Here is the input.
Amino acid sequence: MPTRRIIDIIRYQLSPFYIPRKYLSRDLKLVIEKHTFTGSILDIGCGSKPYRPFFRDAISYTGIDFETYSLHRGHRQEPPDYYFPPKYLEDFVLPFKDGQFDNSVSFQVLEHHRSPAMMISEMHRVTKKGGYMLITAPFLGGVHEAPNDFQRYTRYGLQNLFAEHNIELVELVAQGSIASTIAMLLNEYVDNLVRRGGTTMVIGLIIYAPILIYSRVSPFLDFFTSSKDICFNYLVLARKK
Here is the structure.
């Protein structure tokens, strides 16, 4: 196994973001295996395209983001194919034709969008009839990428967002439960401590070991702390009628 690959695996296992990445990867695989994602795919807010490898049957995978896009450490690094035009923050219109793509996806972007309704509307517009729209968005969690963090959605808010545009909801998956949500929040807290540097960084590194152990067992504890109302993220699969 290449050294770079070994380093990536170790970084993934020790990452404070292990829990959300584990659940997101697991559920993406399940949804993609269950449904057909062939043809062309547009990834809105693609960052460095960390989820492209999941769509192996796609003919093409196109990403769009801002020039100051976020890098996803521990994942593949590939730049966007397009950048949002200068007027995007005024009209939120994507630079693509109606029905240009067979499917559209967007991962952990909805909370950062200044007009979520317009984002969904544009995804709907550029997706072909019968095509899938796949998004993920957080429900619980700290503020991130401040100050561009504007909202969180419940399952009912997501259902309503798609219903307003007459989009068929195929699946709505709650990711995590009580144990894993606690683990994720503890990891976010430690990550914030470490980023401050100095004494707080030392404290964060000291308390991280037991939190890391708890994080690894929390997915199993979710079976015993199951809750339909407490999760940290949602995955939504919809289809254009």
Observations:
- The first strand starts at residue 39 and ends at 44.
